[in-house]
Amino acid sequence: MDAKDAIIFQQLDVIRSMTENNLRRVGDDFWGAPKPAPRNVEGSPHPAAPADQPTSVSDATSNVSAPAQDGKAPAEAPPETIEALKGELQSYIGLARIKREVNNLINMVTVAKLRAEHGLPDTDLSLHMVFSGNPGTGKTMIARLMARIYKCLGILSKGQLIEVDRSGLVAGYVGQTAIKTSDVVKTALGGVLFVDEAYALTQNRGENDFGQEAIDTLLKAMEDNRADLVVIVAGYDGLMDEFIHSNPGLESRFNRFLHFDDYTTDEMVAIFEMQTKKGAYTLDDDAKAAVRRYIEAQNTNAISFGNARGVRNLFEKVLVNQANRLAALPGISREQLMEITVSDIENARAEDEAEDHAKDARDSSDAAPDFVALNRQLDALTSGLAKEPKSDSEAPVFPGASEPEISSEPETPAERAASSQPQARVGAAIDPNMAETTKATEDRLNV
Predict the structure, then answer these.
(1) Per-residue pLDDT, 428
(2) Percentage with pLDDT > 90 across the chain
(3) What's the chain's Rg over C-alpha atoms?
(4) Cα gap 360→371, rounded to integer Å
């Protein structure tokens, strides 16, 4: 291989590394870490980059080497400092409890290293962690930051994050799960293995489920590679508690729990505003108020809305409506391209509400056959109970029910109308609440 080929291969490797880093951080931006200024091939700020564009600690100090020049080896990026990483942590919106916990952990590890340098004994620190909380609360982002912090502190050799879920660890046949899990661990050595929705490994215990095999393999790997591997498991609150307490090995290795609170409305509005600033968009006071109303209307359930993830989705829908509005205008100015108006936000909200109503209608339509079948079964049951018994010995006796009176007089219209409701009378005799249940079913069908 001549010098020219070597340069080409080195440039391709740089492109690959940059692509991997960009993909790994694509989910970070909407939480609060600002973007770096664009860079040219020499690694200096791009001339076209706005002078006031903020830079990001995470991207500015990423482990991407500059391209080789004249066949020389690529220059290594400067190592990250713990002060810079702390500054990035504090720049994130919300996460007050997590910031305290991470700072506590950084201080503990720092002091432990100092004691070791002075020949003082110290207890082993458990660096494996359990992250619990609803979707979109920053668990993956903090896991990635922890990998970089551990590398900066000398705990890990590489500092990469490998993210998997159950499907990335468990195979479908006997003997394959251990191999699959071991391969994932090999890629995570020197960094953090982040297992999302880890509780799924123990939820479906059965003859053909190999989740426990994945756990056993993972526990052994954590013990064998304790000097250069950190495992973080994540998921919903209660389910993660059940997962950790389902296995003594998990309980002994995971004793550091970080709970991620849902974002408040103020924090989500701040995330939306941060997105607009990063994208060079503008919001006036009326538009900010409309954003707050939009978020409050959609955030009726933190799990389904997704916290910061839901805000990002709302922001993208607003941009779609802005684009639709601008597309019909002649001679669009720079200011118009930057402006997000109240109408853009209100139109996005109206589309979301219409979609929600349509989904509710589909759900009701899908459920209607079930209510019809239930009513038919109820009719058959109560009609059978309402039949006149063949003899006194076969007559059903209901608590609180009076003996039926037999009259030779013809029924009046009112009596015929009353007698056409045997289900309600018999149902009330069996269970006083059945009449209300039947009425609720009928009302649902009428709707």
Answers:
(1) 46
(2) 52
(3) 32
(4) 16
Place of tokens 């970080």: 258
Residue 55's H or E segment, with its range, is none
Per-residue confidence band for 255, with pLDDT thresholds at 50, 70 and 90: confident
At CA 323, angle to CA 319 and CA 329, rounded to 5?
145
φ/ψ region of 125 (left if φ > 0, alpha if ψ in -120 to 50, else beta) reads beta
**Does 116 have pLDDT greater than 90?**
no
Q: Residue 199 — pLDDT band, cuts 50, 70, 90?
A: very high
For residue 227, the one-letter residue type is A
Using an 8 Å Cβ cutoff, are 201 and 211 in contact?
yes
Token couple for 51: 């002078």
Report how far residue 24's alpha carbon sits from residue 163's, in angstroms, rounded to the nearest whole number: 10
pLDDT value for 128: 95
Q: What are phi and psi of 196, to 5 degrees?
A: -85, 145
Instruction: List the alpha helices (DSSP H) in 161-299.
Output: 166-169, 176-188, 200-203, 211-224, 237-245, 248-253, 265-278, 285-298
Q: How far apart are CA 355 and CA 361, in angstroms?
A: 10
Query: Position 279: which residue type?
Result: G
- CB-based contact 74:14 (threshold 8 Å): yes
Please name the amino acid found at residue 142.
Answer: I
Tokens 């070597």 sit at which residue?
A: 6
pLDDT of residue 369: 61
CA distance 305 to 324: 25
Backbone angles phi, psi at 112, to 5 degrees: -60, -40
pLDDT of residue 122: 77
The DSSP string of 386-412 is: HSPPSSGGG----TTPPPPPP--SPPP
Residues facing 162 on adjacent strands: 193
What is the pLDDT averaged over residues 247-271? Answer: 94
Rounded Cα distance, 438 and 447, in Å: 14
CA end-to-end span of the chain, whole Å?
Answer: 76
Average pLDDT, the chain: 78
Q: Which residues contact 108 (CB under 8 A, 6 or more apart)?
A: 125
